[in-house]
Fold this sequence. Notes:
Layout lengths: L1 E3 L7 E7 L3 H12 L4 E4 L8 H4 L5 E2 L8 H4 L14 E3 L3 H4 L14 H4 L3 H8 L15 E9 L5 H4 L1 H6 L3 E5 L2 E8 L4 E9 L2 E12 L3 H14 L18 E11 L2 H5 L4 E2 L5 E8 L1 H6 L5 E6 L11 H16 L9 H13 L1 H16 L16 E9 L7 E8 L5 E6 L4 H21 L2 E5 L6 H8 L33 E3 L14 H22 L1 H6 L11
Parallel strand pairs: 1-7, 2-3, 2-10, 3-7, 4-17, 10-19
Antiparallel strand pairs: 5-6, 6-13, 8-9, 9-10, 11-15, 11-18, 12-13, 14-15, 16-17
Helix pairs in contact: 1-17, 6-17, 12-13, 12-14, 13-14, 15-16
Amino acid sequence: MISHGVPSHFRTAEICVAGTGPVGLAVALQCATAGLRVLVLESGTERVSREHQRLSTFTSDDDIIHAPAHLTVRRILGGTSTMWGGRCVEYDDIDFARRGHVAGSGWPIAHGTLQPYYDTARRFLSSDFDAIAPSPGESGFQTNSLESWTRDRNTAHYHRETLKLSPNILVCTDSTLVDVRMRDGGNAVEAFVIRSRGQETVVRAGCFVLACGGRENARLLLNLQSRFPAMFGGDGGPLGRRYMGHLAGEIACIEFADSQLAEAFFFRQAGRQTFIRHRFRPTDETQRRHDLLNIAFWPKSPPPEDASHSDGVASALHMMSRLRMRARHRPGRQIDPTVASAHLSNILRKPGPAMIGAARYACRQLIPQSRYPHYFLRTPDDIYLLHYHSEHAPNDASRITLSSNKDDFGVNRLSVSFRYGDQDFQSVVRAHELLDEWLRARGYGRLRYLDESERRVDGIKRGARDGYHQIGLTRMSDQPRDGVVDTDCTAHGIANLSVAGSSVFPTSGQANPTLAAVALAQRLGDHLTAMLATRGSSIIRASRELPRGSASR
Length: 553
């Protein structure tokens, strides 16, 4: 059932989850499928509103390397799944290991603990695909690193019928969590305090889960810590520290030796209309030998607006797009005559193939089942930009704290100090050098750098910007002094409060975090189900009925 606000006759649930992004819904559906009654709270509604969005506003001491709230948070049913790209990538074994060259590395669980959930996580996200034969392993770099793409990026939309019809789930929109009310001297959560439609509501449950996104999870806990100063190690403790994301960009092109090699890294469908793609990744051995952070590479088409690509199809697509914008009378969309002339020259070299190729690509993109996840076009010379996505090393100086400013509900906002370190930049440079050597040695191709060697670090710094992935702020640890949650994602010292999402990751790896975060959320759902089955009989008896009736739609 989906309700606007918390119904007045609601009493209690077995599980209360704050957040309806992929992670929150993954926990909720895992528990509901097991027969538990779950209340799910969403701050926003089914449409984006300025009123809700401004609750996430924060101050940052560097707006260049950290993106603002309106680009990184979406208070709406479905959360940031309503704005993400849909890429799903598994983490790697080395991400979970303690590495001598990466301070703060090592998870308190093994990768094998998470791996059984990847297939169910992909099905949950609509990025599952038919099994493919593994490619042979390579020394130096792997080419069998895979990414898959969701068929429906909006997780709430994909699971809408289940959310509407399940007797075990009540989703309440316009229900902003503003406070965590404690009992037993701060050792257990009594209730979540909600603001909805101008009213304050107290909701009770047996277990509570924060799945509000990385920064918001940490903000709620920091506000809680302000009332219980010794909680999570106090001011000098781990809460809000080691804020991580990734580094991404291009400092080189890749020139493949032939078209067949290039095609191995193109988008392709692997059953169920799911697109997949292979990437380059240094092996774990290579990373350890050369003190690298984890990183992945893949070819990227030159931007169609840059006529220097000399590609008639790309130029035709660009001109078609410009003419369409002009026809819609969009201001500032005039075509520069010099630029237009360069594109026309590309087209006129082979006008027939250029127009046919552009028409085929445009038709493909009109059909949802065949639409590429993003723009990609074969080049005539097998030269592509080489995109990298690199790990951001744990850094105690990268952190968030509470600001004295408050939001519309009186909750302290955040002050963000997001930091990259020299290791992050140097590792990207070295990984490119090693990949170039590897390609040349095997006759696969070579790299062409966009800048001279002395300017490459500057190029990486120019592209280094995050705030989207929000990793590490409530990290997992064996001991309370080292983290915020334990290996089951239960908050240290608070038996019935769990934290879900990438904020619990101790390291960022090369992968964007959504798939692993959903897998970990499903594991958390199984843990909560097992815990309530063995310890929560009184809770279960008290919360067997969620309200039913007119709120459903």
